[in-house]
Write a structure and sequence with these properties.
This protein is of the alpha/beta class. The chain contains eleven helices and eight strands. The protein has helices spanning 14-26, 39-47, 58-62, 78-90, 112-122, 138-146, 151-163, 175-183, 210-225, 243-252, 262-281; strands spanning 31-35, 52-55, 99-102, 126-128, 167-172, 188-192, 232-236, 257-260.
């Protein structure tokens, strides 16, 4: 149903978002979700036909010219930044595309049930677990897990979101994490295979091969589908950067679509502004 106050657009119920995505699949189209760190990004990504907009705190860093990984660092309140971008930049300019809020579920200062009420009241139609600790590994990941800032907190947040009728599209890095998220009601699983390559601030050496990305995606998808056959399956990150890359992953795996942040928002700006500026610089003078 449309927004009861305006007659169109956000917020949507969980079932309404699911129905929209199922309709995309039924039309034999890929689901495309895109990060939006600014209002103008959101406006024109919607115009391009994306199915979902996701507001991450990393969008602020990305669109300021910094690496998206800054969103994982202690450079600000991740929850407050995502809420601010949504409230003042993205939600005021979108027409009808569902908008998802990035939630830092491991923030020990938040009563998560209370924060999700604010997310819902703002007009977001769902949640995403970002910043996420699933992409942190090694000794530091062990420290986080042992000191109360574990990935389980993200799973708990998604379980709460399901109870509150919020759609959830979640990052995972392993089949076990995918199964845990599917078990508590995650609606869409995103196989996160690393920081995106390409552009001025993408990774170069710290990335897996396309074959490895496909294998990791498929393992994650199978972990999720073993628990819930109806969960949507999406790929993200690493070497999956262009439409051709996403097509390749769709062909090699059970992926039903792609989530792009840097690959849609940042790369679009970098390429178009550089090209347009060069064209202006080439205009003749009298």
């Amino acid at each position: 149903m449309p927004n009861p106050w305006t007659g169109k657009g956000n917020p949507y119920t969980r079932d309404e978002v699911r129905a929209r995505l199922k309709a995309t699949i039924d039309r034999n189209e890929a689901i495309i979700a895109a990060g939006a760190g600014t209002g103008i990004s959101a406006k024109f990504i919607e115009k391009g036909g994306a199915d979902l907009l996701i507001v991450y705190n990393s969008g602020r860093f990305r669109m300021a010219g910094h690496g998206s990984t800054a969103g994982l660092m202690a450079y600000g309140d991740a929850n407050a930044v995502a809420m601010e971008i949504g409230e003042y930049e993205v939600l005021p300019v979108v027409e009808e595309i569902p908008v998802i809020c990035g939630v830092h579920a491991t923030d020990p200062r938040r009563r998560m049930w209370h924060w999700l009420q604010k997310v819902k009241a703002m007009g977001f139609s769902g949640v995403n677990n970002f910043p996420t600790h699933c992409i942190i590994d090694g000794h530091f990941r062990g420290v986080l897990e042992e000191t109360g800032m574990s990935f389980d907190k993200e799973v708990e947040m998604v379980a709460l979101a399901a109870k509150m009728d919020l759609f959830s599209v979640v990052y995972v890095a392993t089949a076990e994490e995918a199964a845990a998220m599917a078990k508590v009601g995650a609606d869409a699983i995103i196989a996160h295979v690393g920081t995106t390559v390409g552009g001025s601030i993408g990774v170069t050496g710290a990335v897996c091969s396309m074959e490895d990305a496909a294998a990791r995606c498929q393992s994650i998808f199978e972990g999720a589908r073993a628990v819930n056959r109806d969960v949507f399956l999406l790929s993200h990150g690493g070497p999956i950067n262009t439409p051709d890359d996403a097509t390749h992953i769709n062909q090699l795996t059970d992926a039903q679509g792609f989530v792009g942040a840097s690959s849609l928002e940042r790369m679009g700006v970098e390429e178009s502004l550089t090209s347009l500026t060069r064209k202006f610089k080439s205009i003749p003078t009298k």
